[in-house]
Amino acid sequence: MDSFGIDAASVSEGADVFEQEPSDGASRAASTLTSVAVRDISQGIAAIEAEEEAARIAAEEAARAEEEARIAAAEAAKAEQQAQAAREAAADALAGLPDVDWSVGEDEFVSTWTARIDAYLAGSPLAGQGRTFAEAAWNNGVDPRWSPAISNTESSKGAHCFAPYNAWGWGDSSWSSWEEAINAHVAGLAANYGYSITYAFAVKYCPPNADHWFNATLSQMKLI
Questions:
Q1: Model pTM score
Q2: Angle at 107 between CA 143 and CA 127, to 5 degrees
Q3: Which has the closest alpha carbon to 147: 139, 162, 136?
Q4: Which residues, 6 or more positions from 80, have their beta carbon under 8 angstroms from its beta carbon?
Q5: Which end of the chain is more exposed for a tag (fewer CB within 10 A), N or C?
Q6: How far apart are CA 51 and CA 197, in angstroms?
C-alpha cells in the first residue's frame, strides 16, 4: 500500500463501494423473474388438471359406449332367438318365459340377476355363485337363467358332476373352480348356441333326449 500511495482509509472506502445495496432495477428484475416462475407453474398445473379431466370424461364415455354396445348385442340376439322359436313352432312352450330386460344397464342387471340366481341355487353346491352367473351372462350377451338351469338338468345344480366342476355335461371338460367353470360354460353357450334356449339348441346339446332336455331346462328357467 505504501508503495502505490494507497492508505488504509482508501481501502476501507473502496470496500464500502462494493458492499452497497443492489440497485432498484436489479430488485425489479428479480421480482419479475419470481412472478413469471410462479405464473408458469400455475399454468402447467392447470394444463395437467385439464388433461386429467379430459381423460376421465373420455373413459366415462367409453364405458357408456361399451355398455350400450352390449345391450344392443343382447337385444339383437334375443330377437333372433325369438324368431328361431317361432320358426320351430316352439313359441307356445317359451311363452311363459319372461323377457330379460337388458336396457337397465350393467349394474342393475348384475344386481337383479345375482339375487334371483342365488335364490334358485340356495342349498346346492353352486350356492352363492349368482354374481358369477350374472356377470358372465352380461359379458357374453346370454340369458342369465340358461346356464344355471342347465346345471340342474345335467347335475342337479352341481351335486352329481362327472368331471371336476362340470355341472353341465359339457364335453369332457373339467375346471379348477366354479368361477372358472361358469365363465367357460356361459361363453361356450354364446359361441356355440346363442342367446337362450330353443328346441334346436336342445337337439344340439342333448341329441339322445332332446324333448326331455328342452322341457326340463325350460321349466327350470321359468323358476329363476
A1: 0.63
A2: 60
A3: 136
A4: 194, 195
A5: N
A6: 48
Q: How far apart are CA 152 and CA 207, in angstroms?
A: 18
Distance CA 170, CA 179 (A): 15
Q: How confident is the chain (224 residues) per 10-residue block, as mean pLDDT?
A: 48 47 56 56 81 88 87 83 64 79 97 98 98 98 98 98 97 96 98 93 93 95 96
The 3-state DSSP class for residue 4 equals: coil
Question: Within its chain, how far is the Cα of 126 from the centroid?
Answer: 23
- What are the phi and psi torsion angles at 171 (to 5°)? 60, -135
Q: Cα separation of 20 and 84, whole Å?
A: 98
C-alpha span between 67 and 189 (Å, rounded):
21
Q: Are 182 and 202 in contact (CB under 8 A)?
A: no
